[in-house]
Input
Amino acid sequence: MDVLFGNEEDFTATLGVEIEGGGDDFTYLHASSYDSMLRRVAELYPNLKLIATTLRTAHTATKNDWGAITLYEGKTIHVPQRPLEILDRVGGGDSFASGLIYGFLAGKDAQWAVQCGVAHGALAMTTPGDTSMATLSDVEAVMRGGSARIAR
Output
C-alpha cells in the first residue's frame, strides 16, 4: 500500500500544498482544513491509498490537544483531539505512524488503525524518551477512552 505521513508544514514545504487558514504559526486549524489539504495531496498523487497527519494544538509545551485525520481510499477518518499532558514530545509522530501501521498489519479496519496510532502516539509522549514501551493492552485502554498515563 502506498502511504504518506506528514503534517501541515511538511505538505506545504515539500509538496507545495498549503492548508487553508494556516498562518505562520499554525496555532489552530479546523479538521475540515486538514481534510481539504489531504484531498488536494490525493489529487496530486492518485496512487496513494492512505495520507495521514496528526492534529496537535499546543497550548503550552506540556498541554497539547492530540488527534489525527487520515484519508484512506478516498474516505476521511477523523479522531478528534483530546487533551494530553506531554512529558516528552519527541517520538509522538513516529509512534502514531507505527500504531496505524500495526493496525493494518493486524488485519484491523482503517478506523481502528487510526485510533491505534493516536493512542500509541499519546502514550509515547507521556513517557520519557522517544521510544514507546507501551503494550498493546495499554494502547487499547487509551483507545477505549482511558488516560494516556501508563498504569504501573
Observations:
- The chain has a mean pLDDT of 90.
- The helical segments are 8-15, 31-44, 92-105, 110-125, 136-143.
